[in-house]
Every structure is written in C-alpha cells, then in structure tokens.
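As a warm-up, study this chain.
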Amino acid sequence: MAKKRLYIAGCLILIMLAAGSWLSSGATKSLKDMEAEIQALKEENLKLKQQIQELNAKIDLLVSRIEKLEAEKSPAKPLDSFEEKPVVGNNNLPVIKIEPNPSEPVAKVIEIIDEDKKNSASQAKAEPKKDVVADAKKLIQDKKYAEAEKQIKDRLSQKPDAKEACNLLYYLGEAQAGLGKSPDAAKSYSELADKYPACEYSAEALVKSGELYEKMGDKDKAQKLYQDLISLYPFSKYASLAEEKLKK
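Now compare it with the structure written out below.
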C-alpha cells in the first residue's frame, strides 16, 4: 500500500513538473511574439513620421507659391483723390480754391498704357519664349559649362517660378561642378534643397552637395546633409546611398 502511494505521488510530481515546463515555454513564446509586434509597430511609426515630414515640406512649398501668386494678382491701390479740406485760420482772409483738371493727364496716361500694351504684344510675337533649362542642359552635355552658368544666372535674376527655378539651380550646380567651382556648386545644390524641398532634384542635390563638402574636407557638413536627406526623403533611392556614406 505504501509503495502504491509513493508511486502515485511520484506520478503527480512528474505531471506538475511537465505542466510547469509547458506553461513556462508558452509564456516565453508569447513574450517574444509581443516584443516582435512592438518592434514592428515602432518601425511603422517611424515610417509614418518620415512621410509626415515629407508632406509638411511639400505643404510649405505650396503655401509659399500660393502666397506669391496672390501677391502678384492683388490689384494696385488707387491714387488718393483730391479732397476738399476745411481751411483752419482767420476766417476774414480770402481763400483761393484751385480746382484740378485731371482729364488731360488721365487721358495721357491711358494713351501711354495702350501704347505699352501694343509694344508688349508685338515683342511677344517677335520673341518666342526661350527654354533656358533645355538650353543649359544641352550646353552642359556639350561641356560648355561657362556659357551654361551665365545663361542660368541671367534667367534666375528674372525670378522664374518655383518649378523652373529648382531645375535651373540643379543645372547651375552641374555647370559649376564641371568648371571645378566646388564651393559654388555645393552652395547651389544646397540652395535648391532648402528653397524647393518638393523639387524632383532635391534628394539628389543633397547627395551631390554632401559629396562636394566631403571632397573639400568638411566632413561634418557632409554628414549633416546626408542625415537631412535620410530624414526628409527616406523612401528615395538616394537615402540608401546616404546611409552607406554615413557608415564610412
């Protein structure tokens, strides 16, 4: 009888040990699954933050363009008209009232404006709009860097729209790099990325600017540009290139 009791007690102990081992392994597995899920959520959260940064940069560019267009469309304020003001002083003094006759100067102004419109229309017909971006690209392909640089700077001084300006700044950097003007080229690329973050060349410009600063010995500046690229354009093909450069 005693042996039977000992046998039963031993079986119970073995069952309890097996159950404890099973529960322990199950809890460990569940904890690992939770850790993996948390890590996946963290990565997804990081991607969403990066996408939000890109969208914010694009929104800022669009807002600035809208403000510029609204400023250009706002009508000019009319000139102040003549107002008859009360005369302050001795009422016994004679007052001479001068009535302006604006009809003649206004007619002259209208005539000048009409003439200017005619001249502008004739010039527009005689001189078709020049595609400076395409011309600059062709000059750079032909290695005529100095001529390309001059044409681009002349056009930029005329304050073109955002799309044309970002393209011009990219090719200005290309021309200056071809001339061996590394500081100027790096500055042009950086200006493009700063002013026009939604431009198609912005990510590439950050890489090229960083590479030029590296060649000039300014490694800190180069690393800052690579980090900006990864932060602003994480899904760009240039982001992986920037990551490789940061590891060196």
